[in-house]
From TrEMBL:
Annotated protein name in UniProt: UDP-N-acetylglucosamine 2-epimerase (Non-hydrolyzing)
Keyword terms of this UniProt record: Isomerase
InterPro entries: UDP_GlcNAc_Epimerase_2_dom, WecB-like
Gene3D superfamilies per the UniProt record, alphabetical: Glycogen Phosphorylase B
Family affiliation: Belongs to the UDP-N-acetylglucosamine 2-epimerase family.
Organism, scientific name: Jiangella mangrovi
GO molecular function: UDP-N-acetylglucosamine 2-epimerase activity
EC code: 5.1.3.14
NCBIfam families with a match to the protein in the record: wecB (TIGR00236)
Domain of life of the organism encoding this protein: Bacteria
Residue span, UDP-N-acetylglucosamine 2-epimerase domain: 25-351
Amino acid sequence: MKILSIVGARPQFVKLAPVAEALAATTHTHVIVHTGQHYDAAMSDVFFADLRIPAPDVHLAIGSGSHGVQTGTMLAALDPVLDRERPDWVLVYGDTNSTLAGTIAAVKLHLPVAHLEAGLRSFNRAMPEEHNRILTDHAADLLLAPTEVAVKHLAAEGLGERTVLIGDVMTDVCFRVRDAVRDEPPHLPEGLTPGEYVVATIHRAENTDDAGRLGAIVAALAGLPVPVLLLAHPRLRARCQEFGIALDRPGSSLVTAEPLPYPDMVRAVLHSRGVVTDSGGLQKEAFLLGRLCTTLRTETEWVETLDDGWNVLVTDLDRLAGAVERAVPRNPQGTPYGDGHAAEQVVSVLESRRR
Ligand code: UD1
């Protein structure tokens, strides 16, 4: 069987890692296509190296652009690749523009598409990712759902027959890396002490693209009563520069650094007091690593993290400090994201559902 994975953005490389490993243990052929949506070394290359992902077989080098231009350019570039490879499955991941382009290109060529991380919904139609997920789920032939909640969403949209619950492949990689780095101290910028800082990331359009909102978020982080390690996504840096918002604020709580490779991020979270973010993946990683998360969004797709208050949603920035300083829940966590063996499930479902 030939499986062709299409990836392009940072969270997709993380999801690809356990799938590539599980496929490498079989006789199946795995072709990796990188759209080039993310191209900075810190956003792409280090993930392939650290997570031991084979180098992409095809790199489309699409780069940045408006949603339409980026997605359309990917579509045009994917056509000849898919036509040449004619895989048994096209595997798409998550909810980025690379996911949608890969899906549309494949279904137009009548190639079977499997969507990994199907069924997530924020019910916020202002998010580009929400359109990408819904359109992908409705076009794909096989929906690999990470959670029971995702299965319910798909059933409610009439997609139950194409759905299989497989668990969450991000749990596979998170636990594997956690076990490898657990005893290593984190590399922290000067001024930060293990156990006393929070890790912060901000990159979503709703937080970065409005000057007033972004300025208020950076000011709130700088004013927190604990040191903040802000790992700056390129979009955050670009918007701050455009709006004249300083990320370098000596004397404040804020310590700004470059995005971290995956193992360093896991270590940074393991040794933190908690996380402040608008990233979907990091909310869940905080939960899996047993750290409190405060999410700067109006909703989350990973609703299981909200149980018992491991994760809380905050939009009113006056509430941020109180949220960050809340107590750790006493109840033991459940295991809504599976046991860390979802990637093997992906392979066996692709085998059994092959047309
Ligand atoms: C994309 C995904 C988002 C995911 C995020 C993870 C979509 C619609 N969004 O958002 O779901 O959570 O990836 O990071 O697909 N840039 C660089 N270097 C890079 C990549 C981006 O400088 O390697 C800058 C460019 O200015 C670019 C901007 O970041 O215009 C946004 O990048 P883009 O890939 O369009 O979306 P993300 O915000 O990264």
